[in-house]
Design a protein that fits this description.
This protein is mainly alpha-helical. It folds into two domains: about 110 residues, Arc Repressor Mutant, subunit A (Orthogonal Bundle); about 30 residues. The protein is built from six helices and two strands.
Length: about 160
């Protein structure tokens, strides 16, 4: 793979993120939400087993301040309720409220439109292959991340 253009790969990831953030920001504005509030709402709705601010920071890479501000706004709107956990009162469960459901549905429609944009022009078998390859890449990443935790990465390239 000597001819792999790493810059092209990075630009590809940036374009995907740019489009997603652009679409999210547009829909969030329509719903009178900040992008942070929309991101946190979607995280909680799409990952119900991960329902703390700490989870949102860890799994999505959000800063604590970003999540804290979003949680404050969402709580004020009645879209979520924060309840301390029994194990650690500093850690709070973020519980979505019924009032958030129409907003979540709207934001999930945006996510579907985003995915349709990504796969536009692909035949069904190409789209299926894309998701198979993405799943395999995801598994490779998960394995490597687990390996790296057990054995710190020693870069040959000096990166």
């Amino acid at each position: 793979m000597d001819s792999f253009d790493f810059g092209r790969y990075l630009r590809f990831g940036k374009k995907i993120n740019q489009l997603y953030q652009q679409m999210l920001q547009t829909e969030a504005k329509k719903l009178d939400l900040s992008s942070a509030e929309a991101n946190v709402l979607l995280f909680l709705a799409n990952s119900p087993e991960r329902c703390t601010a700490r989870d949102a920071c860890y799994y999505r890479g959000f800063s604590k301040a970003y999540v804290s501000k979003a949680v404050e706004g969402l709580s004020r709107r009645g879209y979520l309720r924060a309840t301390p956990t029994e194990e650690d009162r500093r850690l709070q469960w973020l519980i979505l409220q019924a009032e958030a459901q129409p907003v979540i549905a709207h934001l999930r429609d945006m996510q579907q439109a985003f995915l349709q944009t990504l796969t536009e022009g692909l035949r069904p078998e190409e789209e299926a292959l894309l998701w198979q390859v993405m799943e395999r890449i995801s598994n490779n990443l998960s394995k490597k991340i687990a390996d790296d935790k057990a054995r710190p990465y020693e870069s040959q390239s000096g990166m």
